[in-house]
Amino acid sequence: MGNKKSFCKAGEINQTNDVNDQNTRRIIASNPNTPKEVLMFLAQDLSTTIRQRVAENLRTPPETLSKLADDNDTEVRLAVAENPNSNAAILTKLSNDESIDVRFGVAENPHMPEDILIKLADDDNPYVRCRALQTLQRMSLHSQARLNLLLQSCCGKHTTKEN
User: Fold this and answer.
1) pLDDT tier at 146 (50, 70, 90 boundaries)?
2) Nearby residues of 95 by Cβ (< 8 Å), 6 or more positions away
3) 74 and 35 in one domain?
4) pLDDT per residue as tens digits for the range 77-114
5) Are 25 and 78 part of one and the same domain?
6) Is residue 29 included in any domain, yes or no?
7) Domain encompassing residue 36
């Protein structure tokens, strides 16, 4: 069992022979236990695959996701759109992306603010429009179910419907 460190610090990452290997960097970028500082460092990697894995990682902070939202690669931007840590500002920017795939990813994100989905429901692309409308419908059903639960807990089992 040796004396291996489980992760490198961002400043040490270039000095470690194992991290010069793309496969090792990909594993580190994908690992949910990777420190945020290392993810921030790997977000600048020359490899699109590494940047995409960072964008997919649920520990990647919004500041890093914001930078990755400007990436030249569509797959990286799509991964940012699908990451639940992407805030409204990031998602708004991506909802205007030139790539249909990225806008589609934004349209299917269940954490999307409703106003962005309404905007995407009027997208030039029919697939993006349809996905935005489907997501709005799912959100509406989910909201209705939560409202019913709240009404039951607040008003008891004997709620009446108003006609």
Assistant:
1) low
2) 103, 106, 107, 116, 119, 120
3) yes
4) 999 999 999 999 999 999 999 999 999 999 988 778 88
5) yes
6) yes
7) 8-86
